[in-house]
Design brief:
The complex is a heterodimer of chains A (290) and B (281). Helix content of chain A is 78%, strand content 0%. Chain A is mainly alpha-helical and 290 residues long. Chain A is globular. In chain B, helix 3 crosses helix 10, helix 8 packs antiparallel against helix 11 and helix 9 runs antiparallel to helix 10. Chain B has 13 helices and no strands. Chain B has 281 residues and is mainly alpha-helical. Chains A and B meet through helix 2, helix 4, helix 5, helix 6 and helix 8 of A and helix 1, helix 3, helix 4, helix 5 and helix 6 of B.
């Protein structure tokens, strides 16, 4: 091979060794656990597997997970859009500090994310007594689950959009405004189409985390079967009751969601990359013509 | 003298509205609840705080959490390098699938990975059965905690190393080889110094994630106080006993460790980029 002559390629034994290590390590740590989920779920046959989903509590858990994601994801999407417009399209002081604050939830461990809401809204919390006086329950109820989920998925959309919008300069928006478009029209017709794939990418990751969050939700939920039980929490309950087939059956749905997420993510990354390359090619062309 | 302006002027509308809404939402969801944690700590006396934080059971949980997280990040730094190098430099069948699969620990809900790892490493599981004859107990022992923390840290190391390996300057490697360096010398003196910052960053990110991990660990660990109880679980246990102050004290310790690590990651990156910048100039 020519590359070998240039001194950039490794001897073939090293190549073989490193590829073998890669396959074994990823096989052991990624594929085997994933395979286990489906094998354990199907251990007693398809009939038992599907019977696990006829259970009322399992259905309630699936519905609550869908409801939680249906609230948390759109709100964080709206935040991502608003924050990225304000941050990326204007120059102001303290911008980097604000970006750091947006990333903060990623540095907070899930259990602590749940804890802070218990300290706010729990019976002994800051607002506990006044909530109780108005008969509003947040902790050990659905609102707490939604809030904790919103916290842990907070940065996903914003952190995809902000760097991309910073990279794309504001010339296209200036052109739209000077041609008489309103701010909203400019955003909808110019900015949004430019970031749509990154937006979808952020939403996919945000949704996966919203449906799969365990630690934060576990702290605020109170584990009331059929009421404050999301799918990951239901997996835990079934597992602790030694109902392994049912636990892995619910887990297999979450594993399918993870696989769908990975496929969507890979497809979107390919799209983002080809867009990036096309943009670079155009830039090169412009440089060439000068 | 005029004060420097907060914002540069722009013809684009909506700055006040969008930034105002964004900051409001940030305060409501993140900043106010998070500051409640520190306010709560302020209501505990120093004596009580240290008593909770330095309690033997708490100390045992830090030892396990930090030790297992360090172990997991170390395993990932070594094997993650082999994975990242193979995925970037070599072309082999199945490469794209392996590459996409690296993100699985991000995508798979932690409770699911927790029960799957437990089923695998339990004494009657596929891997546990192989290890049992040698007297190695994985599930329900500190080693099991380390296995779970390795699993969740894997993508951090691989995903930070990959771009660094892609960015290696081909000319430098070729020059080293032309000048008579062996492949090993080239690696040690040319390649290694350039990917070291990424390796350190990935290691620290995997370590930080493992410190706060909960879902994937609590099933495999067995949760015996003093032996296999991680700090996150201790927080939950205290909360379940309505010991809010105790839970808060432990949480502050873990949160401070995470923030210190993040700061260290940023400082390392800043320091390396300055050093590389100077050596290039």
């Amino acid at each position: 091979m020519r590359a070998n002559a240039l001194g950039r390629s490794d001897p073939s034994w090293l190549r073989a060794l490193l590829i073998a290590v890669t396959v074994l390590f990823l096989g052991l740590f990624l594929f085997l656990p994933l395979l286990t989920v489906f094998l354990e779920a199907l251990r007693k046959g398809l009939a038992t597997y599907f019977a696990s989903f006829t259970d009322r509590d399992a259905r309630q858990a699936i519905l609550l997970t869908l409801l939680t994601a249906a609230i948390a994801v759109p709100l964080n999407l709206a935040f991502g859009l608003v924050a990225s417009w304000g941050i990326a399209k204007f120059e102001f002081k303290g911008k980097n500090f604000l970006i750091t604050l947006i990333d903060l939830p990623f540095a907070v461990s899930p259990v602590i994310a749940g804890l802070i809401y218990v300290l706010m809204f729990g019976a002994q919390g800051w607002f506990g007594p006044s909530l109780e006086a108005h008969h509003i329950q947040i902790i050990f109820a659905v609102p707490g689950i939604v809030l904790a989920t919103m916290f842990v998925t907070f940065p996903f959309v914003a952190r995809e959009l902000i760097p991309l919008m910073q990279e794309q300069d504001t010339e296209e928006e200036y052109a739209a405004i000077s041609l008489g478009a309103s701010g909203w029209q400019t955003f909808r017709r110019v900015t949004l189409p430019n970031v749509k794939w990154a937006l979808l990418y952020g939403v996919v990751l945000c949704n996966a985390r919203a449906m799969g969050e365990f630690g934060a939700v576990s702290v605020v939920s109170g584990h009331i079967r059929g009421l404050t039980d999301t799918m990951p929490l239901h997996v835990e309950i079934l597992y602790n009751e030694y109902n392994f087939v049912a636990a892995f059956a619910v887990a297999s749905l979450l594993a399918l969601l993870a696989l769908a997420t990975l496929i969507a993510k890979t497809a979107l990354e390919a799209r983002l990359e080809s867009r990036q390359r096309a943009k670079e090619a155009v830039d090169m062309e412009i440089v060439h013509e000068y | 003298m005029r004060l420097p302006k907060f914002k540069q002027s722009s013809v684009l509308p909506g700055f006040g509205l969008t930034l105002g809404l964004a900051i409001l939402y940030l305060c409501l969801i993140v900043l106010i609840p998070l500051s409640g944690l520190f306010l709560k700590t302020a209501t505990i006396t120093w004596g009580r705080f240290w008593e909770v934080v330095l309690n033997p059971r708490a100390l045992a949980s830090y030892r396990l959490t930090f030790g297992a997280a360090l172990f997991g990040a170390g395993v990932n730094a070594i094997f993650g390098f082999a994975v990242a190098w193979s995925l970037v430099r070599y072309r082999f069948p199945g490469r794209r699938i392996l590459d996409a699969a690296v993100d699985l620990p991000f995508a798979l809900p932690t409770a699911v990975s927790g029960i799957a790892l437990t089923a695998l490493y339990a004494p009657n599981g596929w891997i546990g059965r192989l290890l049992a004859p040698y007297g190695i107990k994985t599930a329900f022992s500190p080693l099991g905690v380390a296995v779970a923390m390795t699993f969740i840290g894997l993508p951090f190391v691989v995903r930070t190393l990959q771009p660094a390996i892609e960015d290696l300057d081909a000319g430098m490697e070729e020059a080293a080889s032309t000048l008579g360096a062996s492949r090993f010398q080239t690696f040690r003196q040319v390649i290694f110094p350039f990917i070291l910052p990424a390796a350190i960053t990935g290691f620290a990110m995997a370590f930080a994630r493992a410190l706060g991990e909960y879902g994937s660990v609590i099933f495999i660990s067995g949760n015996m106080p003093m032996r296999t109880e991680i700090s996150s679980l201790l927080i939950v246990t205290k909360l379940e006993q309505y010991d809010y102050a105790g839970a808060t004290a432990i949480a502050v310790v873990i949160l401070m460790a995470s923030f210190a690590l993040l700061l260290a990651i940023n400082l390392t990156q800043w320091w390396f980029s300055r050093r590389l910048g100077r050596s290039r100039a």
